[in-house]
Specification:
This protein is an alpha/beta fold. It is built from 15 helices and 13 strands.
Length: 385
């Protein structure tokens, strides 16, 4: 009898990371892939990205509507509650043997709580990491305490999960699935990409992704204006913007992006969602990633490009030498951009090593999910160091 493995995805970025694991489960004779799609995938405002999932050959078993149109703290809280109701129904219908969850967003706290209450073991990917600027930090560690299996990106993160009382026998340092994406995805060449996204690369090119720092109070607009002011000082530079997640105050950033690109449509373009292949392909032809997205820390170093990491959103994560940290001020961002283009930094990029693995996390995760026994009871003793 096939083991039913239920994978949840709630955002475009998360799906991009999970893609090759989903393909592996789908192609494994002893496993049955069940897919629950929710969050921004189902929102017109974010590009209805569930269509990309279907286009990639996956069957969506359940769609859980949970995102309210507002981006206030109250709306995020209510969305989480709606998600719990939807996931409870989905799990009851699908009756999975395992639920696979990646990361730390608020959609996942609803998915994990429902799985816990339904006594379904959770395989959690990317635990043990730290991002003190986002409430994702608390969500990530909460899911760790609900999960049965843990698949971390590094040994450092593995040790943190064990510090939280998890049995080392069920904690595996497998590398980051992001790197599997880089290694396994066939990428477009420059002319193919330019035609597909309607953008012509120039002498200098930057990709900008900036999300609200959810543990700060109403800083999104101020910090993003500081970033735009820094970008406006650059000459001979073209910009690709990707929209932020459905976090608190995300809409104000989207509005500022649209205003900038409308007024500078000769040098900039913006996307609700670039799509997995387009995004990764673009990393071949840009000089650096600017903003506070985890992609700048995870995928970008594998392309030997720099990342300007603004503010505290990613504070606490392991970083390659290609990451330039700066404050969310115009002057600090300008100085970071100068460093990015300096001869010494460009020379250093040639030898950058990505600390997040070799691109074989999919196979390691699948081996455990396929072969490890399913617990009859989810009783976990606290593991003392």
């Amino acid at each position: 009898m096939k083991r039913k493995v239920c994978v949840f995805t709630g955002t475009r970025a998360e799906y991009g990371i999970l893609h090759w694991l989903m393909k592996g489960i789908q192609n494994e004779l002893d496993l049955e892939l069940q897919l629950i799609v929710s969050g921004t995938h189902l929102s017109p405002e974010f590009g209805l990205t569930y269509k990309e999932i279907e286009k990639d050959g996956f069957t969506i078993d359940k769609k859980v509507e949970m995102i309210l149109s507002a981006d206030t703290p109250s709306a995020i809280s209510k969305s989480t509650g709606l998600g719990m109701i939807g996931f409870a129904d989905a799990y009851n219908d699908l009756k999975p043997d395992v639920v696979v969850l990646l990361g730390d967003r608020y959609e996942l706290i609803a998915a994990s709580l429902s799985a816990l209450y339904c006594s379904i073991p959770i395989a959690h990917i990317a635990g043990g990491e730290s991002t003190i600027g986002a409430f994702d930090e608390a969500i990530r560690h909460s899911i760790t305490k609900m999960a049965w299996w843990h698949f971390t990106s590094t040994e450092v993160y593995k040790n943190r999960v064990i510090q939280m009382g998890e049995n080392p026998k069920r904690v595996y340092a497998v590398g980051a699935l992001n790197i599997d994406n880089v290694v396994k995805t066939p990428l477009l060449n420059k002319s193919e990409l330019e035609k597909k996204i309607g953008f012509k690369f120039g002498k200098r090119n930057l990709l900008v992704t900036f999300h609200p720092v959810t543990m700060e109070n109403n800083t999104a607009e101020k910090h993003f204006i500081e970033l735009l002011n820094a970008l406006k000082t650059l000459n001979h530079t073209r910009f690709i913007f990707t929209h932020p997640n459905s976090d608190t105050d995300g809409r104000v950033i989207r509005d500022l992006i649209e205003s900038f690109t409308e007024n500078n449509n000769d040098i900039s373009i913006s996307f609700q969602s670039m799509g997995r292949v387009n995004y990764l392909s673009s990393l071949q032809f840009i000089d650096g990633v600017v903003g506070n997205s985890s992609s700048g820390l995870a995928e970008a170093p594998s392309f030997k490009i720099g990342t300007i990491n603004i503010g505290d959103r990613q504070k606490g994560r392991l970083k390659a030498k290609s990451i330039i940290d700066c404050e969310p001020t115009t002057d600090s961002i300008k100085n970071a951009i100068e460093t990015l283009y300096s001869e010494d930094f460009q020379r250093m990029l040639l030898t950058v090593v990505n600390p997040m693995g070799e691109g074989d996390a999919t196979e390691k995760i699948m081996a455990i999910i396929k072969n490890d026994s399913i617990p009859k009871e989810l009783k976990k003793e606290f593991y003392d160091l």
